[in-house]
Task: structure prediction
Amino acid sequence: MRWVVLVLALAGAGGSGFVGFIWFGDAERLKPSVTVIRQQAKSNPQAQAAIQEFDSLHKASYFLMAGAPLGIIGGLLALSRRGILAALVLLLAFAGPAVLARDWLMEKSDRMVGLGIFTGALVLAALLAFFIRPKKVIPEEERAYAGV
Result:
């Protein structure tokens, strides 16, 4: 079970890093036009909404790129039999970008599906990590009887 969680966490981490890099590239491409819109944002409510959308996309891209090391850390925690902590780290790596960019993701369903496909392995790894049991510790006085 631990190895399955590790493989799924690594796959989810790779997908998270990939999507984060793509979203970051999109945000950087839009940056020159956003600076022009920022100047008009004080008088135009539509421009303010566009600025907020851009900012949430930019923050989510950073969180997705941070999800790659979080996925690796979660997989290694699962491998070392720290299942609940691993599950929490993996859920954080998945849920963080979805919370930050929820309005942008809800506009079109293909965005949500794309995020789910690339980072869905993190959720599956987190669910499986809850079933990892800690290593059984044998007390010192019983070790002689256990053959250890």
The longest helix spans residues 2-40. The mean pLDDT is 84. The radius of gyration is 21 Å.
